[in-house]
Amino acid sequence: MQLELSIPTKPLTLGPRRLARIQTKEDLVQSLGYFVVIAVTAMFLLDGGLSGLVDIPSVLDAISRLASLVGTALMLIMLVLTAKAPWVDAAIGQDNATLAHKKLGKPALYLILGHFAASLISFAISDGRNILAELWSLITGVEDMLTATISVLAMILVVVSSLKFARKRVKYETWFVVHLLSYVSVAAAIPHIFSMGSDLVANPVHKFIWIFGYLFTAANILIFRISMPLWRSFSSGLRISRVHRESTDSVTVTVSGKNLNKYSGTAGQFFMLRVLTKELGWESHPFSISAVPTNDKIRFTIGDRGDATKLVQKLKPGSRVILEGPFGVFTEARRTKVKTVLIGAGIGVVPIRALAEGLHSNPGDVTIIYRTRDPADSPLLSELKVISEMRGHQLKLVTGSRPKSGNWLVANGTDEQGLQQLVPNIRNADVYVCGPVALTKQVEKSLEKLHVPKVQIHTEEYAW
Amino acid sequence: MRKESRLAIGIVGFSALASSYFLGQGNATTSSFSANPVESSSAVAADPSATSDPSATATVTSPSTSKAATSKPSATKTATPTPTKAGGNFTSGVVNYQYGTMELEAVVTNGKLTAINLLQATTHGRQYAPVPGLLVDAAIKAGGTNFGNLSGATFSTNAFKKALDGALAKAGL
């Protein structure tokens, strides 16, 4: 087989300083989130928010204020986490950002609900009305209260529709449209925040912090989530140029265009692909690139199962596409050691194959372990063989179904022993693992038993 | 996040919050106002000056005097004297809000807010009549708008603060 490989030529410096830089970037971006929450709480305290609590209404007011400050801060953080911003992706990886976004959902909701309830009850006590009458009086009598109530209702809808029980019953597209209400919720709250927020009135510093926060969030969304993918995809003229069956359950799709270098990404990364046809235009799927991109081609290999089955059957060359990305830190950017181990199972071999081509290496530096059921029907196996021969990688194929022992690597003995034999100095190597969740966890356990430091273990899950 | 970073954030965050809390203690003169001293009865037109709420402020005879009497003893915060001795009467703009209008005149002597004359100070209704007076007291005590919310009269507090800010801005404070 003839393969045109993009072999890296620029020198790469590895080592502890590189690791320190990687970790510092990650820590800085994560600290930003903590800093925002601490800052708004500190401003609340400086304003005497927790002093002079003498009776129920004043306690409720304090709760309402603090809950709204932290809750809204969390919501803005959540929006930035899913803005698909390159600086977030480079620091922590978009998949981790999405996970963090999911984790913040419930706390943010509880805080906003707490704010809503506390302020409503406080007003009800002061005005001597029952809760419902007070709510009605506020909505009908006070201008920005209607939009504020709409905001909280929209938020409830968004979070409830995202809970596990709801996701199971609802199509992805439906869930997505409901989820867009988050933008409505955040925007609808703005009027009452600036016209009635006790913390912002007569506190220009605090007001500035929030104006800046909203503008910063909006900018990230408008630029990175909305404009950039559209602009790039259309100005590059991205289209499907080739669809080719790779194995029984995988298909290779090539997207072509011009001037792709600026954003075509590096081996190990993935894009969100949206095919602009009537049937497929509503969906967007994450796919890993299966070769190092060139200035006019980005190649994906996708598993023909589950969500992607319909996509694959309906793909035709010539269709325009929109690419969002590149995303992911399953790349050489996280590499700090010379020796590297690439472990791929099933369709997880896709980024592994790309890394095999794109990593800086001398013969003997890289060991590849490919777990697959049937060597005669394994995606990208022939390419891996050619690459390994050309670049001097060690390629180990592990075939057949799992042995009775439940091991993932060897039939006899422990996986750790097997791994140790294959890569003697694995403690001093970077290990990239990609495959089904259960298998990835098993491999990670073996690596832990061999005392491979966590910072040298890189995983890409196909589950998120 | 690295362990050291986590620790650093914890220490810095805790210190920031603790200092903010203590600085804020002397700051706010938040008091509470209740227009309905009798809890569930809505037919009672409570006499505002005879409220049974123990934390309610002392009686104020007319809304436009500036007596410095509040229920909660707290550290007085005076405006920092400015090098230029500002003095004079400064009128705020008219601030309309949900329950009425606030318009006041700030009296500044030697760079300090010494009195406030209420030109327009309408609130929810009869039961809220003492509110403007309480706000004036709090403002004099704080030397400006740097005082806490008057719980139970959030909207009025905000409107009052907006008006006072405008007047003080004219005084260059």
Helix/strand layout:
The complex is a heterodimer of chains A (464) and B (173).
Chain A: H1 16-46, H2 56-81, H3 86-92, H4 94-127, H5 131-141, H6 143-162, H7 164-169, H8 172-179, H9 181-196, H10 204-236, E1 239-247, E2 250-256, E3 270-275, E4 285-288, E5 297-303, H11 307-314, E6 321-327, E7 339-345, H12 349-358, E8 366-372, H13 381-391, E9 394-399, H14 415-422, E10 429-435, H15 437-449, E11 457-461
Parallel strand pairs in A: 7-8, 7-10, 8-9, 10-11
Antiparallel strand pairs in A: 1-2, 2-5, 3-4, 3-6
Helix pairs in contact in A: 1-2, 1-3, 2-4, 2-10, 3-4, 4-5, 4-6, 5-6, 6-9
Chain B: H1 3-25, E1 88-91, E2 95-97, E3 100-109, E4 112-121, H2 131-142, H3 154-171
Antiparallel strand pairs in B: 1-3, 2-3, 3-4
Account of the protein in words:
The complex is a heterodimer of chains A (464) and B (173). By secondary structure, chain A is α/β, with parallel strands linked by helices. Chain A is built from 15 helices and eleven strands. Chain A has helices at 16-46, 56-81, 86-92, 94-127, 131-141, 143-162, 164-169, 172-179, 181-196, 204-236, 307-314, 349-358, 381-391, 415-422, 437-449; strands spanning 239-247, 250-256, 270-275, 285-288, 297-303, 321-327, 339-345, 366-372, 394-399, 429-435, 457-461. In chain A, the strands form three sheets. Chain A has a five-stranded parallel beta sheet with strand order 9-8-7-10-11, sandwiched between helices. A three-stranded antiparallel beta sheet of chain A has the order 1-2-5, with helices on one face. In chain A, strands 4-3-6 form a three-stranded antiparallel beta sheet. In chain A, helix 2 runs parallel beside helix 10. Chain B has 173 residues and is of the alpha+beta class. Chain B has three helices and four strands. Chain B has helices at 3-25, 131-142, 154-171; strands spanning 88-91, 95-97, 100-109, 112-121. In chain B, strands 1, 2, 3 and 4 form a four-stranded antiparallel beta sheet that branches. The longest helix of chain B has 23 residues, at 3-25. Chain B is elongated. In chain B, 39% of the residues are buried. The interface between A and B is large, with 40 and 47 residues.
